[in-house]
Amino acid sequence: MNKKTDQLAADNIRALAISMVEKANSGHPGGPMGGADYMHILYSEFFKYDPTDMAWPYRDRFFMDAGHLSPLMYAQYYLLGNYSKSDVQNFRQWGSVTPGHPEVDVKRGIENTSGPLGQGHTMGVGAAIAAKFLQARFGDWMNHKIYGFISDGGVQEEISQGAGRIAGHLGLSNFIMFYDSNDVQLSTKTDEVTSEDTEMKYKSWGWKVITIDGHNHDEIRKALKEANAETERPTLIIGKTIMGKGCVTATGEMYEGYTELHGKPIGDTGADFVKTLINLGANPEDEFAIYDEVSAAYKDILANKTKEAKAKKEEIASWRAKNAALASKLEMFLSGKLPELDFESIVNKDGLATRAASANVLAYLAGKVENMIVSSADLSNSDKTDGFLNKTHSLQKGDFTGSFLQSGVAELTMAAMANGMALHGGVIPVVATFFVFSDYMKPAIRLSAIQELPVKFVWTHDAFRVGEDGPTHQPIEQEAQIRLLEKLKNHSGDSSFIALRPADSAETVVAWKMLLENNKVPSGLILSRQGIKDVPATGKSRYADALASEKGGYLVKKVDNPDVILIANGSEVSTLVAAAELLESKKGLKVNIASIISEGLFRLQSQAYQDSVIAKGKPVFGLTAGLPVNLEGLAGPGGKVFGLEHFGYSAPAGVLDEKFGFTGEKVYEQVLDYLKKK
After folding, report:
1. Is the CB of residue 559 less than 8 Å from the CB of residue 590?
2. What whole-number distance in Å separates Cα of residue 75 and Cα of residue 88?
């Protein structure tokens, strides 16, 4: 492609981007106009994929951080044939495949859902980790690149520090990120909010940094060649660009670099839409057209990419023929299938904390599920993911043969990277921290749910029984917040999240079984710090009983025609067992106890099953260490839920149980008081 055609292609992208925003009367035109040159050079000359097989696992991947730059992506992918003319004409409209912020759509080239700044490029870092992990196991032929695109706002978001630190520390040479540095934000210029030296910042993290004129195609090309040749470090290409590049006024004067060009149609600014189209070489009568010369050039580009992909596939086929066992393992990794697992064989001592039971499960899985990557936010010896770590070693620069990622104190970064790993495919990401710090992770959990990614979250220290650490470390409202996602449907119509709070060791093992068998949505374990007395078995074994947890809830104690039904999850179930013994021995009452590990799953069962667990017309008493709302829906309008409606206090766990009323004796009294008022 010659310089003239390159420029036409970039200008075509600009014209399409502003046309999308103008027609929708909504969106962000200025940034796409600045990033058009980079996108064209990247996709026309460097980006490797198969246009006939968009989900090809060994493709390069592009992770957009600045989701408001979606017109840039849609315009570029329109040139590549991923979108039709009508698709880009219906930008931001009901039922369109071109939403306001990109939503994962691999068949059209969209690798990630983005919008909240900072998460998109962090997911790219996670994808790069997954790629390195797989490369270490299957060979250097698996050498695809992960490209990121970040804006001034993305650099400012705090999560960028975590992503930058980890990518540099691990030496992710397969990660190449373009920073669209136009010095303009939505409401201000960047010099009003920051004076940092971004280049030096990333260099201090161990990145290769190249600063270029983001509109100079030769400089872009040279930078991408250097980045692709780098073998030790991730690369940041700082492209100095101009917001609204190519905009002109009604009288033909340049109108570039203004803040107002960021977030509204250019026709509502000092620029003139029609004159700008003409300046960019577009036909105002057919603003969504691909220029003839550009169309011809992209036909050649697509033919070359298809040819390159075919050659790569032949290389891979040759490797498969020579490495049948490895090839079979790789296919299993990519399929998401699990090996044969015998969860019942996992033995736990009586009275373990559920975090300790989880550690035993992880120790078992470490030797069985070879594509699991477990990460902890500097808490592995406390959230007990060290059960897994002790059977492997940490990922390190130059050595990705391990399976444990030390994220450091960066909960949001860790969760977003896990999303990126899941998006890449071939690995099973697990992330862990204290439950109270799920607050830091919430934005990534939400994107995990929206993207329908089967990330596994492990949260320990689940309640006020954290004890002496006090209210800052004692979850109260967190369970309610997480369980809201169980009530929220994703676009596939499924519950967007599965939250499991097991009652004892056996339920913890079953919960892990549920997590691993779920490959549709994110899921989480909510685990105790303190030891929990095992629930008495009613069948052949406690594990066999606990398998009923797969329905979200079941009776751990059952009698005919009960006087009261007690419901809980987690450690409160054992407290109910103690209370039931008193109710029966002292008052002669008949008591059923239900362990509801997940209300979301429980509500998916038949009404008949739900009624068999929580019988209609019977008094229902619920116990929760969190907000009463956790169980109020299950208890019903005539039921009572005893929970906490205040923050915790610093004191030993046993003292807090007594002070807050979470002992068998205190719950016994609560139930009697409730029944008296019925």
Report:
1. yes
2. 7
pLDDT of 37 strictly over 80: yes
How confident is the model over 503-548, as pLDDT tens digits?
999 999 999 999 999 999 999 999 999 999 999 999 899 999 999 9
The amino acid at residue 640 is K
Note the Cα 38 to chain centre separation in Å. 27
Q: How far apart are CA 347 and CA 357, in angstroms?
A: 9
Facing residues of 64 across strands? Answer: 149
pTM for the model stands at 0.97
Neighbours of 186 (CB within 10 A): 15
Largest CA distance in the chain: 92
Question: Tell me, what's the pLDDT at 184?
Answer: 87
The answer on pLDDT for 1 being more than 80 is no
Q: How many CB atoms lie within 10 A of CB 253?
A: 12
Contacts of 318 (CB under 8 A, 6+ apart): none
CB of 551 closer than 8 Å to CB of 601: yes
Catalytic residue chosen out of the listed positions 411, 479, 486, 507: 411
Q: What is the mean pLDDT of the chain?
A: 97
Query: Residue 262 — pLDDT band, cuts 50, 70, 90?
Result: very high
**Which residues fall within 8 angstroms of residue 328, CB to CB, at 6 or more apart?**
none
Res 561: pLDDT: 96
Whether 457 contacts 498, CB under 8 Å? no
* Beta-sheet strand order (sheet of 61-64): 61-64, 146-151, 175-181, 235-240, 208-213
* Residue 17, amino acid: A
Burial of residue 632, with CB atoms counted within 10 A of its CB: 0-12 exposed, 13-18 middle, 19 or more buried: middle
Scanning 42-89, the segments in alpha helix (DSSP H) are 70-79, 85-89
The amino acid at residue 68 is H
394 close to 102: Cβ distance less than 8 angstroms: no
Are the C-beta atoms of 185 and 152 separated by less than 8 Å?
Answer: yes
**pLDDT (0 to 100) of residue 186:** 83
What integer pLDDT is reported at residue 661 of this predicted model? 96
- Rounded mean pLDDT of 228-257? 97
Contacts of 663 (CB under 8 A, 6+ apart): 575, 578, 657
Q: What is the mean pLDDT of residues 251-267?
A: 95
Asked if pLDDT for residue 564 goes beyond 90, the answer is yes
Report pLDDT digits (tens) over 227-241: 999 999 999 999 999
The CA distance from 66 to 71, in Å, is: 11
- Which residue carries 């998109």 as its tokens? 120
Q: Is the pLDDT of residue 677 over 90?
A: no
Contacts of residue 14, Cβ cutoff 8 Å, sequence gap at least 6: 32, 33, 36, 75, 245, 246, 280
3-state class (DSSP) for residue 634: helix
Q: How far apart (Å, rounded) are the C-alpha atoms in residues 129 and 622?
A: 44
**411 is known as an active-site residue:** yes
Whole-angstrom Cα distance, residue 338 to residue 356?
23
**184-207 per-position pLDDT tens digit:** 888 889 889 999 999 999 999 999
Cα–Cα nearest to 199, from 219, 181, 183, 213 = 181
Cα separation, 161 vs 149, whole angstroms: 15
Q: Which domains does the chain have, with CATH numbers?
A: 27-244 (3.40.50.970), 343-526 (3.40.50.970), 549-677 (3.40.50.920)
* Whole-angstrom distance, CA of residue 573 vs CA of residue 571: 5
